[in-house]
Design goal:
With 167 residues, the chain is an alpha+beta fold. It has a single domain, classed as Hotdog Thioesterase (Thiol Ester Dehydrase, Chain A, Roll), CATH 3.10.129.10. Helix content is 24%, strand content 35%. The chain has three helices and six strands; from the N terminus they run E-H-E-H-E-E-E-E-H. It is elongated. It starts with 7 loop residues before the first strand and ends in a 6-residue tail after the last helix.
Length: 167
């Protein structure tokens, strides 16, 4: 059993070219991740579940900012609430199979709302076989630092125009 959590391996797939002609509200991100653990004959199921929680929490608000092209104007971002629902048993969340081979997971993220200093992330975690093993949702506080009112208005208009709700 481990006394501390050693960290994560994570990478985001480069979707910039694919997203170039998509409105921000239709964009998604895809992360590939695994825990930086050693295989063991006595796995700590709670620690491995916590690793999934950690990865989801760590990436969610940043994925919202990336999706809406706001990384360059972020001043502060913070999680307000984070929900994860596991859809499978602990054995399917392990980072090593019975032969000691590392398992990798995929976190698909999207956001349909950024407004009034808040962002709402939605995510789905899949295993290598494509099984949906968990769902995530995170509400975050976001403070942006605009260069000027003109930039702020232009970016807000771009996001508003891409809205699914046309008034």
């Amino acid at each position: 059993m481990l006394d501390s959590f050693p960290g994560m391996y994570t990478s985001i797939l480069p979707f910039q070219d694919f997203h170039e002609n998509q409105p921000p509200i239709d964009r998604q991100s895809l992360y590939i991740y695994s825990a930086n653990l050693e295989p063991t004959t006595a796995p700590d199921y709670n620690l491995e579940a916590c690793a999934h929680l950690y990865h989801s929490d760590r990436e969610s608000i940043w994925s919202v900012l990336r999706q809406f092209e706001l990384l360059d104007v972020i001043e502060v971002a913070s999680s307000l609430s984070h929900t994860v629902t596991f859809h499978v048993g602990a054995d399917k969340l392990r980072f090593f199979d019975d032969e000691g081979k590392r398992r990798w997971y995929f976190l698909e993220t999207s956001a349909k709302r950024v407004n009034d200093g808040r962002g709402l992330h939605e995510g789905r975690v899949y295993d290598r076989e494509g099984n949906h093993v968990a769902s995530t949702m995170q509400d975050g506080a976001i403070r942006l630092k605009w260069k000027n009112d003109e930039e702020k208005n232009a970016r807000q208009e771009k996001i508003r125009k891409a809205s699914k709700l046309k008034l």
